[in-house]
Amino acid sequence: MNTVKQKSRSDIPEEYKWNISAMYPDESDVDRDMEIAKTYGAELAKMQGSVMSSADTLLAALETYSDGMRYAEKAFVYAHMKHDEDNSDSKYTEMYGKAVSSITAFGAAASFLEPEILSADASLIDSYIAGNSGLGQYSFMLKQIMHGKEHVLSPDQEYVLASLREVLDAPDSIYSALCDADMVFGTVTDSDGKVKDLTHSTYIGFMESKDRRVRKEAFDRMYETYKAHNNALSAMYSANVRHDAINAGLRKYSSSLEAKLSPSNIALSVYDNLIGSVHAHLPAMHKYVSIRKRLLGLSDMSMWDVYVPVASPDESSYTFEEAVDIISEALEPMGEEYVSVLRRGLLEEKWADVLENKGKTSGAYSFGSYDSYPYMLLNYTGRLRDLVTLIHESGPSMH
Known about the structure:
Layout: E1 3-4, H1 29-45, H2 55-85, H3 90-109, H4 113-118, H5 122-131, H6 139-147, H7 155-163, H8 165-168, H9 170-182, E2 187-189, E3 195-197, H10 200-207, H11 212-228, H12 230-250, H13 256-261, H14 268-280, H15 282-295, H16 320-330, H17 336-348, E4 352-355, E5 365-367, E6 375-380, H18 384-398
Parallel strand pairs: 1-3, 4-6
Antiparallel strand pairs: 2-3, 5-6
Helix pairs in contact: 1-2, 1-3, 2-3, 3-7, 9-12, 16-17
């Protein structure tokens, strides 16, 4: 019986790892940047009480904040992505923890800034922008701050909340450690008799199998593992919900939903209309499921049957290089420059961490700092679905 095991990070070819060392050729500079961010935070704290004295003092505060955050964010992004390479690597777990503490401390030092800006009238800020060319680049930032005026607390209260950021975000980091590093989902025997590791990346492939036994086995193994950690997962979820609810209440939002939507200028009616439209069209979904059951020849429809294609798709497997060729052709309407920049990024500059390995964060994302490449985390397996993921993550990276 053939066995296909999940690879360790060291087994992944270098050409399929992101060029994250471009951010820090000397990794000791991560600690240096955290220290620099700390000095900027201390410098910014000295400005408390005088930010709105003049256009020049406002500009100085915004520049100090932006420069300091640039250092803190770069260190944070690097540590975050190194941690995501392998959540079980204690070296980068420690580095990530230090980076979170660093950016939290900087945020706490800068917490007085928004309340102090909001203490001024909008007309004064407009006059400062009109009279000081340097403030022009901060006009959108200032507009966003003014938009949230009624939800910003006093300087002391903002300092407390900013200082607690690391603690309040703990459920997310604990969940990642549990699900991406500690959980082991076992193996599944595919329709060809090969025993394969069940992971977040291989799960969907099993669920698309024509063999219902394979689908059910993968589903049961995956969710039996999650069920074994029900209490821990429930505690994390509950803590996250309570955090959102308390934050919304403190900031005088009507709900957690409004607290999430308002900073992006999204009206509650947009969300309500979306939910309403989904409910209005549920009969069409029910009809589709009924048709799917009939086409698959099933007497009952279970959760492990919802991903298998009802038609026979092209079973081709695509190398990453072939995937880049395909999405490049699809993106030709975006222009020659767009495509050439993306191809160079994916194939030469190595923006993407392509393949799955043991302990790697599941899913996919686009991430980076002001001073880095627009990196992409993937868990590429060569299926058509992975091409869709690649072109999807390429969008925000190119933006």
